[in-house]
Amino acid sequence: xxxxxxxxxxxxxxxxxxxxxxxxxxxxxxxxxxxxxxxxxxxxxxxxxxxxxxxxxxxxxxxxxxxxxxxxxxxxxxxxxxxxxxxxxxxxxxxxxxxxxxxxxxxxxxxx
Amino acid sequence: xxxxxxxxxxxxxxxxxxxxxxxxxxxxxxxxxxxxxxxxxxxxxxxxxxxxxxxxxxxxxxxxxxxxxxxxxxxxxxxxxxxxxxxxxxxxxxxxxxxxxxxxxxxxxxxx
Amino acid sequence: xxxxxxxxxxxxxxxxxxxxxxxxxxxxxxxxxxxxxxxxxxxxxxxxxxxxxxxxxxxxxxxxxxxxxxxxxxxxxxxxxxxxxxxxxxxxxxxxxxxxxxxxxxxxxxxx
Amino acid sequence: xxxxxxxxxxxxxxxxxxxxxxxxxxxxxxxxxxxxxxxxxxxxxxxxxxxxxxxxxxxxxxxxxxxxxxxxxxxxxxxxxxxxxxxxxxxxxxxxxxxxxxxxxxxxxxxxxxxxxxxxxxxxxxxxxxxxxxxxxxxxxxxxxxxxxxxxxxxxxxxxxxxxxxxxxxxxxxxxxxxxxxxxxxxxxxxxxxxxxxxxxxxxxxxxxxxxxxxxxxxxxxxxxxxxxxxxxxxxxxxxxxxxxxxxxxxxxxxxxxxxxxxxxxxxxxxxxxxxxxxxxxxxxxxxxxxxxxxxxxxxxxxxxxxxxxxxxxxxxxxxxxxxxxxxxxxxxxxxxxxxxxxxxxxxxxxxxxxxxxxxxxxxxxxxxxxxxxxxxxxxxxxxxxxxxxxxxxxxxxxxxxxxxxxxxxxxxxxxxxxxxxxxxxxxxxxxxxxxxxxxxxxxxxxxxxxxxxxxxxxxxxxxxxxx
Amino acid sequence: xxxxxxxxxxxxxxxxxxxxxxxxxxxxxxxxxxxxxxxxxxxxxxxxxxxxxxxxxxxxxxxxxxxxxxxxxxxxxxxxxxxxxxxxxxxxxxxxxxxxxxxxxxxxxxxxxxxxxxxxxxxxxxxxxxxxxxxxxxxxxxxxxxxxxxxxxxxxxxxxxxxxxxxxxxxxxxxxxxxxxxxxxxxxxxxxxxxxxxxxxxxxxxxxxxxxxxxxxxxxxxxxxxxxxxxxxxxxxxxxxxxxxxxxxxxxxxxxxxxxxxxxxxxxxxxxxxxxxxxxxxxxxxxxxxxxxxxxxxxxxxxxxxxxxxxxxxxxxxxxxxxxxxxxxxxxxxxxxxxxxxxxxxxxxxxxxxxxxxxxxxxxxxxxxxxxxxxxxxxxxxxxxxxxxxxxxxxxxxxxxxxxxxxxxxxxxxxxxxxxxxxxxxxxxxxxxxxxxxxxxxxxxxxxxxxxxxxxxxxxxxxxxxxx
Amino acid sequence: xxxxxxxxxxxxxxxxxxxxxxxxxxxxxxxxxxxxxxxxxxxxxxxxxxxxxxxxxxxxxxxxxxxxxxxxxxxxxxxxxxxxxxxxxxxxxxxxxxxxxxxxxxxxxxxxxxxxxxxxxxxxxxxxxxxxxxxxxxxxxxxxxxxxxxxxxxxxxxxxxxxxxxxxxxxxxxxxxxxxxxxxxxxxxxxxxxxxxxxxxxxxxxxxxxxxxxxxxxxxxxxxxxxxxxxxxxxxxxxxxxxxxxxxxxxxxxxxxxxxxxxxxxxxxxxxxxxxxxxxxxxxxxxxxxxxxxxxxxxxxxxxxxxxxxxxxxxxxxxxxxxxxxxxxxxxxxxxxxxxxxxxxxxxxxxxxxxxxxxxxxxxxxxxxxxxxxxxxxxxxxxxxxxxxxxxxxxxxxxxxxxxxxxxxxxxxxxxxxxxxxxxxxxxxxxxxxxxxxxxxxxxxxxxxxxxxxxxxxxxxxxxxxxx
Lengths: 112, 112, 112, 468, 468, 468
Ligand SMILES: Nc1ncnc2c1ncn2[C@@H]1O[C@H](COP(=O)(O)OP(=O)(O)O)[C@@H](O)[C@H]1O
Ligand SMILES: Nc1ncnc2c1ncn2[C@@H]1O[C@H](COP(=O)(O)OP(=O)(O)O)[C@@H](O)[C@H]1O
Ligand SMILES: Nc1ncnc2c1ncn2[C@@H]1O[C@H](COP(=O)(O)OP(=O)(O)O)[C@@H](O)[C@H]1O
Hints:
The complex is a heterohexamer, with three copies of chain A and three copies of chain D. By secondary structure, chain A is an alpha+beta fold. Chain A has two helices and seven strands; from the N terminus they run βαββββαββ. In chain A, the strands form two sheets. In chain A, strands 2-5-1-6 form a four-stranded antiparallel sheet, covered by helices on one side. Chain A has a two-stranded antiparallel ribbon with strand order 3-4. Chain A is elongated, with a radius of gyration of 17 Å. Chain D has 19 helices and two strands. Chain D has a two-stranded antiparallel sheet with strand order 1-2. In chain D, strand 1 and strand 2 form a beta hairpin. The longest helix of chain D has 29 residues, at about 1-30. Mean pLDDT of chain D is about 90; it is low at about 1-60. Strand 7 (about 100) of chain B pairs antiparallel with strand 6 (about 90-95) of chain C, so a sheet runs across the interface. One adenosine-5'-diphosphate sits at the interface of chains A and C.
């Protein structure tokens, strides 16, 4: 199994979720994160004091999928999250050794 | 070493933490996340406009443990987090290559 | 490629980011998390009712870097995040199988 | 879900029927006199209050009652201030103390009560509290129905030196805040429908009579019980009802185990501050005029609130090591409650004493007593309003000042008489609240399901949540 | 970015020039009389209001007008209350309903409007609304410029029984809140610069004349149109302008698809509550005195708000299964709007009816009508203020009570006349708002860019954000 | 930890002893006359204010002083409004500007100060500010102790046309807000115990005397310094003390490096709005009556606030490219500060000028000056209150209007005299604040530890935090 980590623009969240679901992914977990990269943050100025906000709001999606489904899932995210502008984000793939569904105790691909 | 990622119901957080501690896990890190899966979110209606909230609040626990302790930790989480109802969550196990304790510079299992 | 996960004290975030950038890391993703470990949380008492806050606020940095750059990045974090006091945090290293830059479709090290 | 709610509505109607039946029959018997004939009556009805609160010039005893623009201006303002106490004041005070998942439900309770009570006061509450009961045997205990739907309350009616309509709406704001205070006791677990039903019944069966006893010419005013602005009528009354609710409903799921820390004490601070500011309308407004009595009541209110904060602060600093914002807000409310019955009877020096004692007493009530007796009065309605209210009521008897209260009143005032007032109110509020809860329990049911409680009342009761 | 903003400023100046030109020429023609000679005028100008709102004693007709301290006290208070309605009241009511990324921008609109309108009222607004136009052909439609910069408004001038300056500042608060109400219709998408420009023009071209029509001795008051506190002048006027704005600006990006749930209904609750409390100043303050009329207006206000909440609550409970906080807040505002034109003309019983009907009507407007017609009136300015305003205006004609409104006024009152008032206001506000929007569109542009809309107006318009 | 706090308490007691010693000896020497003999005095004491604020009818000079219900109504209201300025107004204004980890601690400061100052005013503050010092050599500088614990302040005492107790509580609210204003300067780093100790000493050693100088018959009123509602007594005084605090305490850890952006400008907006609304009580209330003077003071207040917002908005729009909510809130406060000394002396046209200039000056103070001089006045107490206060004080001398201020006063008014008032206050507040800080520093210590500062004051000082 693979853990697919995608960092995307917040307003793309629903598009990406739908794309993943269409690609057969049945579950995923989302966190609000702040990103640093080529896309730079805003500067906020309050009474003359500048605060460089170095981070840009992003969302991180994590979905564990079957080895076979990984490539398709990556493609789905890529297609749905792209705007072509800087800051579109990244996808990382990490190997997962085991998965468990807490409710049933199922393990492996059956747990996803 | 293994990174154990558990996504569980928020009100189970303290139970799971205690279970892990009993199982010998000495440290862990928690994030508030939103989950998508079989358990569906609420629909909120404001002045007739429906907003489908697709995500359910969950917490994600991450604990890095010794290879030997991994199975026991997974069991502990499973036991503590289960309610038997849909949405109980998942546990994923990922291999970790190295760990460092920043304060002391210790590495490997000693860093946990 | 390696995913470097660092859990550090919140007020060290900017220092660590700068250190990583100096070490050649071009992107990273940050989440606000709560940590449990040797450093204990506060007890809050409201009208005589004690609430043990078991968790301490931490930030989690995730940066995917080239295999070659991993050691240097770990060193940079270690140096920048250390205060010598309990609760300084941990660094974990996980193997990453693939990376994609959504905007361009580049993969592998080029995507970072 | 649908059926659940209809059960709720049905229960409400049932409740209305229960109340309505005697009301209707009483109505039929009383044969209310035509509006014109009633015109004088309200001025008389207001008299007991005027007596209890001696004004410098005995305006009410003049032959022709006329409206004073200055007094009217102040009472218009006071009405606005007391409304502000409930919304947004109390709503925020309580809203900040609950967990985030229950904040909307908590503020919604105060808001809904404001609406329901306003209409109910007009329909029958005012009449039950302030009209003369045509049955002399009942008059000591409850008003009649002659002013139901404000029949017989005239546009040019005068109450003391203010328009009668203004007296109606000023007292309406007391009718609103009293049930709203109770909601703190069962916060985070009661069904919205059950809450509404309970409050409708409680306000008619408990508040209106108790108000009549003391301010409507009932038996406690005959006894000489002093209650300037509602220490007994409002605070003890609500405090005891709250205690009964807390015990009957039982503890919140996870009480003593889960983290139930107040989610946002900034909201609580705003609420406490608005309660404080609004209390000027409550206490100084209870002079029913813009005069020296209103002035001393305002000064007393301020000094007592401040004194009680200092008490709480010092005790907490010693016991808890750190003085907290919640403690100061609690102290403020405790002091305001304690001075309420006394505001127009004691000197500022007396007020300071009442504040200092009231603050300490409420600390004991909310922190020590609750721990000891192990009930879950979520936001300490009894601990703060009940205890400080009782302390204030008793001290009013002790500290009544001849210069402020008038020689006669001050001489007659004593802790014993005050205690009778406390006792009567505790007994009636306690028993009746229990019975009403039972009625609600076996019609609409009191508590939300466990699952709904875990999910939070915002979503389960209102389908709304805070997104931030 | 810089150039963009300068474009904005340039537009603003252009707008000033557009308005300024006729103003300047009118000024030149009018040759305003020296200040002393004007001293009497304002008292006369205020008379139409006094007529529309019969006071018990016809103070204004006394030979020597004098100030009554009681009336003055209440009007000082009322002014503070109405200011509080806009900031922080309306700002929070709206701020809680938008998404978190737009909350600062939303509250900033009310705040900025408060500043701009205050100055504008002094500069020319007051004069256009309340001065006598020296051209008798224009007088039915708009005031003159004789009071521009408050020339001719004297320190010792008296308006009714209050200082003239007080009348100026009390009416100023109405001039502030009316445009601020409109901002709800185009929330989350309009440029700050365009918003300012629109409001400057709208307040002078729409508000000031309509105010003159009804309260400044204009043609609608001659027609006998009744509007006690601004149902037509304020609420229908703003509601219709809001509708036009919503349609012209178009829907928010993602409307019907993205989650646009109110981000914090606690803020909305605070706002609704402060609007409610402040409305006592609005309605009871419109009696311009602390008397029986103010008292009944306050009671009516309270009862109508409560009644409308109950209407909304019940309908929502049936239709949506759960009654919500947003619904109760909306109901409250609907009831307050509906009673506004009637507050000093109907009995409390009539007020209850107006509240019940107004709440239901606004529900229809905000929930059903908007869905049906598919415009994006973000926060339902038309649905709530427009619809409830129209219902209230008509019902004022039907329910005017001889005892409260006076026999003559009540006899003359009828739905038909009221409808003329509604029609005139709808037409003028609708057409003029459209034209002004077009002017803004082709100078500074109306909407922020798509990217800015996605990022949120807090950052894009103000460079600020909420960090929590 | 425990010991730390006890050190704090000990310091407090020490401070009390320091103040108490001379107080006690003075008390012994003065042999205060029995209460009855004092009854007239307060009316006389109030006279300087009445002189400074010419009322239409010289009510205070009548043979028998009587209470006017209208004036009393307005002053009761004003007192409520000024209390609202501090809590929740100022608490929120400041609370929104700090980082989230310090918000509870920040609002707690205003709340605690409200409690402490209320009691302190009763105990000795009122007497030091407003009583006649029996030692004629001291009378120009500070009041005596004859009114300590409100001895000699009678229930039927009259101050002008209002009850004396009302004058006491109205002035109490000024005694509360002034130290609370200072807290903005050292926000996010001062110990709660040190803060309390500093404020107790400062209010007695600085506020009470300066108040006496100008309003209590002291030397500045003899000089003819004009200060209608506290531009000098309150704002310059607090602004200078704030500057000294900021410099002595030093910068916040991470200043200029860490992100210290205001965490929630919605709170700041609410606070600014409530300050604004409350300021009507502050300024129009300082007329001490409901009359034409109060009316013009209210109109002036509104116009100046609005004008200052426009100034700030335009400058910021040009310099920062985007106009912000914080800017508008800051501008509002600046305008309100600037008009405070002038509110009852200038015409509305003059008020607009004062607002425009005051807003611009405060921008310079808060944005440019602070950058230049590199002190960390966290929330710009000096930049806004100090600078705008000075500008307002001077302009009062320039713009005093014969019609409003009275011919004599206006003729005598001049910038030079005003400057003397400014200078005296700056000097005394500056020096004494420094000395008091030193006392605190070497007893309880001023700053929290670095670790506590990083953790946030909410947890470290109060053991509480916002959970959302
Ligand atoms: N090496 C990395 N490791 C972890 N996260 C990264 C890394 N590089 C970028 N990111 C995340 O991806 C987001 C987008 O990257 P950025 O460089 O701004 O634009 P782009 O994806 O268009 O190259 C960043 O905000 C950050 O959250
Ligand atoms: N494949 C997956 N990858 C990542 N997270 C998942 C995955 N499937 C489920 N989850 C997480 O687990 C939670 C529970 O899953 P769900 O399907 O609702 O119920 P259950 O665990 O009972 O099967 C989800 O809300 C989501 O956060
Ligand atoms: N085994 C672990 N797995 C995941 N996170 C850990 C683990 N141990 C510690 N942490 C994280 O590191 C933080 C610091 O650890 P702690 O034991 O408090 O101090 P130190 O790093 O000085 O040993 C914790 O708050 C937690 O977030």
